[in-house]
Structure formats: C-alpha cells, structure tokens
What we know:
Layout: E1 7-12, E2 15-20, H1 31-46, E3 52-57, E4 61-63, H2 68-72, H3 80-86, H4 88-97, E5 102-106, E6 109-111, H5 113-119, E7 123-127, E8 131-133, H6 147-155, H7 157-166, E9 170-171, H8 172-178, E10 183-185, H9 190-202, H10 206-219, H11 224-238, H12 242-252
Parallel strand pairs: 2-3, 3-5, 4-6, 5-7, 6-8, 7-10
Antiparallel strand pairs: 1-2, 8-9
Helix pairs in contact: 1-4, 6-7, 10-11
Amino acid sequence: MSEYENLLVEQTDGVLTITLNRPDRLNALTDVTAHEMIGVLKKAARDDSIRCLLLTGAGKGFCAGQDLEGFQAREEGASIRRHLEETYHPMVTRMRKLEKPIVAAINGACAGAGLGLALACDIRYASDKAKFLTAFIGIGLAPDSGTTYWLPRLVGPARASELFFTNDRVDSATAERIGLVNRVVEAEQLMETTRELAERLAKAPTKAIGLGKRALNRSLGVTFKESLDYEAHLQDVAGRTEDFAEGVTAFLEKRPPNFVGR
C-alpha cells in the first residue's frame, strides 16, 4: 500500500517517478497533494541515490489545477494568499531549488496550478493528446503558482498575455511551436520516451547539472556580467567534484565516463 494518499512514487535506476494519482479528478490538486509533493521533494534533495525526477499524471490528465470543490469547502473569507503560501509556493520553489533535473511527462489536461507545476520542471515532454489552459481568468482569479514568472519567459509577454486573458486552450502542437514544451510525443510512447531521458540524465554528472540549474535560476534576474562571475564561481565548485575528475580521465582514455553524482 502506498504511503501517499494522492501520489504514486517509485524509484528505479536513479529515477524517482512521481505520479499524481487522482485520475477521477484529472489529478486536481488538494492541500494533501501539495504537502505530499513537498515531502517527496525534501526526500529527493537528501537522497543521493535519486539522480533525476520524472513527474506525470495517472489516467487521462496531467493536472487540472486546484480542486475547486475542496477549495469551495473552506471557511468563508479564507485567505487565498495564505493557501498559496502554505501549498503551491513551497512546492514549486522546492522544485526549482532541487539541484537535480525534473522531467515532466504531460500526458493530458494541464491547467491552472497544474500548468505552474509543469512550468517548474526543467524539461517538458507532452503527449500529442495534451491540452494546456491557464484557467485562472475563467473563474475570476489572477494567475498564480509561478505562471506569471515562467510563461512570459518561455513564450514571450505578448503570447503570455493572450493566454492569460483569453483563457484559450492550447494543443500540444501549438505548445511545442511556441516553446511551452520541449517536445511532443505520441501518447503511447510518452512514458517510454521520458523514461529514457530521465535514465540518461540520472547517469549524468548530477552535481554539474545541479550547479547548472542553480546558475540558470539566478541568470533570470541578474546582469550578463553577474552571470559570468557566478559561472566562474560554480566552475570552481564543479572542478572539485569526483565526476569532473572522472570526465577528464574518461575523455583522455577515450572511454565513456562513469558518473556517480559526486
């Protein structure tokens, strides 16, 4: 029996696969789901045997966003800000701060806070049946879950404004064309394809990937010179890792490197 109520979690070959598991609700998010995700992310940060994360959804949907039935049941006048600060903010922040790659296998509907969850991943592959929707304006809310940060950086401010204000659905082909996802895969091949990518990343030098992710996060809010300075600092750190020594040795010996994530 799973130790989680709303997640399925499995680790093999250095890959931690997290499946949002409320298929009857298109994996709509609840407080329980968010707190379980935060717990899994904490574990992933501490466990060196976890080298890559793969996130997907059970059934026909990836994540339909906030479960509105559960949200409506809250006390009258309950603060949405407090809800966000206790659930989605720490969840997506931990995803971005986790110095290990996170691959999203977007298998179906991806909307609202579910879109924020997908955007917090490092690489997004989508099924050819996937659909994307900002959703917030449809219920009279402003965007949240980090979508206002990532969406304009991926698709541009004008396109992001259009998606936020019109609430138009985006199919997978359009999502790939505008840069919302990295690649579209036939539905039947999605998990196999993303699994192959995750296993490949799990065999890569994890520390170097983590440092690169740290630099990419920081680069979004600093000058070019500051990026150069920070790159130099991180290279000093990477240059002291076992994986760097192994990478150079393997190159000189003309053999594939055996990276161990240290």
